[in-house]
Amino acid sequence: MTTMALLITLALGLLVTPLAAEAQPAGKMPRIGFLRDGGSHLSCSHTNFLRALHELGYVEGRNISIEWRCAEGKDERARQFAGELVQLGVDLIVCSSRVGSLAAKAATSTLPIIFFAGGDPVPALVASLARPGANVTGATNIVGWEFFAKHLQLLMEAVPGVTRVALLLSAGDPFNAERMTPVETAARAVGVHLHPVEVEVPHGFEVAFSAMTRQGVGGLLVGFDAKLNMHGAQIADLAAKTQLPAIAERREFAEQGGLMSYGASFAYLWQQVADYVDRILKGAKPADLPVVLPTKHELVINLKTAQALGLTIPPTLLFQADEILR
After folding, report:
1. DSSP per residue over 46-97, as a string?
2. Each residue's pLDDT tens digit in the chain (326 positions)?
3. 314 in Cβ contact with 157 (< 8 Å)
4. Alpha-carbon gap, residue 226 to 77, rounded angstroms
5. Distance between CA 139 and CA 187 in Å, rounded?
6. How far apart are CA 154 and CA 152, in angstroms?
7. Looking at the structure, do residues 308 and 209 belong to the same domain, yes or no?
8. In 3D, which of 182, 184, 203, 181 has the Cα closest to residue 193?
């Protein structure tokens, strides 16, 4: 469903959707703060979240109010907006990034916070996955760094004979060393030479891709990083211009023109976030709601991009795909 189609559907929902959140006092419209890291207003997180809320009977402007804020990838803005949402007196805060989640947790120890964030939330956000404790819970697309090995495997199936692969990482990320170790191990095991490339986000992508071209790499693994996710379209565009087959975690990357994506189903995880919003508005406590982990992973292949790169995707790989973009 396109963004415009979703908006039309949500508008029609104003006429047919029954009122939700019966536990709310009569006449009181629940007010949610939504703090995102970046991207356009109608980004994937907004679309999936609004769709999931709508399925539960909530329609923005009718029986629920949402205060949207964007930190634009800046820690100081995340802290500013988290404090602002607390001061506005929202009923709870939903965060679509780790940076925003940490800012919200620092801003309040009582207001419920529901996060959708990558990486392990223990102990920075919650005491444990099963019993979060305090005022924070949510969903995570947590994966072990060995997940890169799966990306490498898929890339090698799509590009038989590739011997040099770049790993794109954002410069200065403290987890880069951890990310490189398992993928280097996986690359050595299959005879692939790995070229880690750290990019200064957001202005260093041209330089990074020039470096990859000089190194003669035949494929690209995009690191699991919120900053890189914010610039997926730019990465996909540069990969196309440099004739570089690339794979990333989020399906939007394939939709934006990247060759493939493989990762958790974000639509499913946003459904769980919306469910937690509903349950908390009806009286549940974040401390009692376990952190949701991904149960489904999706492989998306952009066949149009494959054709532009001169690749013939093997039938065995196409058979594995959850969706093929033509």
Report:
1. HHHHHHHHHHTT--BTTTBEEEEEE-TT-HHHHHHHHHHHHHHT-SEEEESS
2. 444 444 444 444 444 444 444 445 556 899 999 999 865 444 677 888 999 999 999 999 999 999 999 988 788 999 999 999 999 999 999 999 888 999 999 999 999 999 998 778 999 999 999 999 999 999 998 766 567 888 999 999 999 999 999 999 999 877 777 777 778 888 998 899 999 999 998 899 999 999 999 999 999 999 887 788 889 999 999 999 999 999 999 899 999 999 999 998 888 999 999 999 999 999 999 999 999 998 889 999 999 999 999 999 999 999 999 999 99
3. yes
4. 16
5. 30
6. 5
7. yes
8. 184
195 forms bridges with which residues in the sheet?
166
SS3 164: strand
What range does the domain containing 33 cover?
Answer: 3-142+265-295
pTM of the model: 0.80
Residue 280 sits in a domain of what CATH number?
3.40.50.2300
The Cα 289–Cα 238 span in angstroms is: 42
Same-domain pairing of 35 and 124: yes
Buried b (16+ CB within 10 A) or exposed e, 286-296: beebebbebee
Q: Are 234 and 100 contained in the same domain? A: no
Domain count, the chain: 2
Q: What share of the chain is helix, strand, coil (3-state, %, to 5)?
A: 40, 20, 40
Rounded-to-integer distance, Cα 4 and Cα 107, Å = 35
